[in-house]
């Protein structure tokens, strides 16, 4: 058996104390729900997986993945729910005239 050397960590600790490893990532052909999207975003942000690897592994577009990251950063995991897309998609800025 050969063990591939990697500069990436084998596990990461999320801000809530949860430990995330490659084994915790969803399957390649997963049915996407908010928690699985958040897991992939956290893996990339934590350095467990590269952005390019995530996009390739899960057959995502760059725009789709970037929208997940932005949603999590702005509003948290709940913004990844399909039923909440319209609520969190565009935050309107009031113009003063």
From TrEMBL:
GO terms for molecular function: sequence-specific DNA binding. It comes from the Bacteria. SUPFAM superfamilies: TrpR-like (SSF48295). InterPro entries: DUF1153, Trp_repressor/repl_initiator, WH-like_DNA-bd_sf. Gene3D superfamilies: Winged helix-like DNA-binding domain superfamily/Winged helix DNA-binding domain (1.10.10.10). This is DUF1153 domain-containing protein. It holds the Pfam family DUF1153. Coiled coil: none annotated. It comes from Paracoccus tegillarcae.
């Amino acid at each position: 058996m050969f063990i591939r050397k990697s500069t990436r960590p084998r596990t990461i600790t999320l801000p809530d104390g949860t430990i995330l490893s490659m084994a915790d990532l969803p399957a390649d052909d997963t049915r996407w729900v908010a928690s699985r999207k958040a897991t992939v975003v956290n893996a990339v942000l934590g350095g467990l997986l590269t952005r390019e690897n995530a996009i390739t592994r899960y057959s995502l577009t760059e725009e789709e993945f970037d929208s997940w990251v932005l949603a999590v950063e702005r509003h948290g995991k709940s913004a990844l729910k399909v039923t909440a897309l319209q609520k969190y998609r565009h935050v309107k800025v009031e113009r003063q005239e």
